[in-house]
């Protein structure tokens, strides 16, 4: 897109009823009307050139509704997970939007644009403090991608924080134009503890994303539009292995990884725009 087109696209999102539009799309995506869901699925596959050869189910008729198709399961051997114990596995199919260091409490969103780590984590000073000077990676899942999110390494769930917010698109054009995009959008912050220390996975909502789910809690459906924190240290432990599914998006969005200072490094081949494949080697724990 040209800068003018990007600006117009971002401006349009400012005036659209983001949450209402997302709820409408969510209703359509959950419809079990055979003619409707089959038409939507076939049209989506054609428009976005979706590769169905690696999916367990490949025909529109095999899915209960559009969301069932969008969060489709892949064949067991479709995404081998890097086996080196210290290797970090990509949590999702997609592309690197940005990655690097958390410098002076800021995270890069796009070239020349930064947002504060404190705002990203919902104002939680404890979480923020643990990742100052650390590493971050932002991975964008396009509409055609596989939309389940998996663990980059072994981890025990420590806490989740739901942060209400707006629902801008999270594609590169919007990231280039909307300041503090990922700290403004609705998101779920999940902090884990590994044998090497803590790390965070943030699932960022977006326009027409019909929902975020986790394997331990199902659909993220807050009863109020307020920040909600849940501590898991005093509950039955949620232990997940590297490569295991931890959540999924009903329509495309973004995953942000955070690691503390001197805890991890990204693979030298990673750069803005680098495609990622779930389970692929993207770095290592130090």
UniProtKB/TrEMBL annotation:
Cofactor or coenzyme needed? pyruvate
Tell me the compartments it is located in: Cell membrane
* Sorted UniProt keywords: Cell membrane, Decarboxylase, Lipid biosynthesis, Lipid metabolism, Lyase, Membrane, Phospholipid biosynthesis, Phospholipid metabolism, Pyruvate, Zymogen
List residue numbers at the site (Cleavage (non-hydrolytic)): 252-253
Pathway info: Phospholipid metabolism; phosphatidylethanolamine biosynthesis; phosphatidylethanolamine from CDP-diacylglycerol: step 2/2; Lipid metabolism
Q: How is the cofactor bound?
A: Binds 1 pyruvoyl group covalently per subunit.
Annotated active site residues, numbered on this chain, are 93 (charge relay system), 150 (charge relay system), 253 (schiff-base intermediate with substrate), 253 (charge relay system)
Q: What class of enzyme is it?
A: lyase
List GO terms (cellular component aspect): plasma membrane
Enzyme Commission no = 4.1.1.65
Q: How does it sit in the membrane?
A: Peripheral membrane protein
Q: Does the keyword Cell membrane apply?
A: yes
Q: Report the main location listed first in the record.
A: membrane
Q: Which reaction does it catalyse?
A: a 1,2-diacyl-sn-glycero-3-phospho-L-serine + H(+) = a 1,2-diacyl-sn-glycero-3-phosphoethanolamine + CO2
Gene Ontology biological process terms, A to Z? phosphatidylethanolamine biosynthetic process
Modified residues annotated as Pyruvic acid (Ser) in this record:
253
A GO molecular-function descriptor: phosphatidylserine decarboxylase activity
Q: How is it modified after translation?
A: Is synthesized initially as an inactive proenzyme. Formation of the active enzyme involves a self-maturation process in which the active site pyruvoyl group is generated from an internal serine residue via an autocatalytic post-translational modification. Two non-identical subunits are generated from the proenzyme in this reaction, and the pyruvate is formed at the N-terminus of the alpha chain, which is derived from the carboxyl end of the proenzyme.
Per UniProt, subunit arrangement is: Heterodimer of a large membrane-associated beta subunit and a small pyruvoyl-containing alpha subunit.
Give the record's family classification: Belongs to the phosphatidylserine decarboxylase family. PSD-B subfamily. Prokaryotic type I sub-subfamily.
Alphabetical list of PANTHER family matching this protein: PHOSPHATIDYLSERINE DECARBOXYLASE, PHOSPHATIDYLSERINE DECARBOXYLASE PROENZYME, MITOCHONDRIAL
Functional note: Catalyzes the formation of phosphatidylethanolamine (PtdEtn) from phosphatidylserine (PtdSer).
| Protein name listed in UniProt | Phosphatidylserine decarboxylase proenzyme
- The species this protein was found in: BD1-7 clade bacterium
């Amino acid at each position: 897109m040209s800068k003018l087109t990007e600006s117009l696209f971002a401006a349009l999102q400012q005036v659209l009823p983001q949450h209402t539009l997302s709820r409408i799309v969510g209703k359509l995506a959950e419809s079990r009307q055979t003619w409707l869901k089959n038409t939507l699925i076939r049209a989506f596959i054609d428009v976005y050139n979706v590769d169905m050869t690696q999916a367990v189910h490949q025909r529109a008729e095999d899915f209960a509704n559009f969301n069932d198709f969008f969060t489709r399961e892949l064949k067991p051997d479709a995404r081998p997970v890097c086996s080196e114990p210290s290797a970090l596995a990509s949590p999702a199919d997609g592309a690197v939007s940005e990655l690097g260091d958390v410098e002076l409490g800021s995270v890069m969103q796009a070239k020349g644009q930064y947002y504060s780590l404190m705002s990203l984590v919902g104002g939680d000073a404890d979480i923020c403090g643990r990742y100052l000077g650390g590493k971050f990676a932002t991975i964008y899942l396009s509409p055609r991608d596989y939309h389940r999110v998996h663990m980059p390494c072994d981890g025990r769930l420590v806490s989740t924080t739901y942060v209400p917010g707006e629902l801008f698109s999270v594609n590169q054009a919007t990231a280039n134009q909307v300041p503090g995009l990922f700290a403004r959008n609705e998101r779920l912050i999940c902090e884990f503890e590994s044998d090497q220390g803590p790390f965070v996975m943030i699932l960022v909502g977006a326009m027409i994303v019909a929902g975020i789910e986790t394997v331990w809690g199902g659909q993220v459906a807050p009863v109020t539009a307020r920040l909600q924190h849940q501590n898991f240290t005093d509950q039955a432990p949620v232990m997940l292995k590297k490569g295991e599914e931890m959540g999924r998006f009903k329509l495309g969005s973004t995953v942000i990884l955070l690691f503390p200072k001197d805890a991890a490094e990204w693979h030298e081949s990673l750069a803005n725009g680098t495609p990622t494949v779930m389970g692929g080697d993207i770095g290592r724990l130090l």
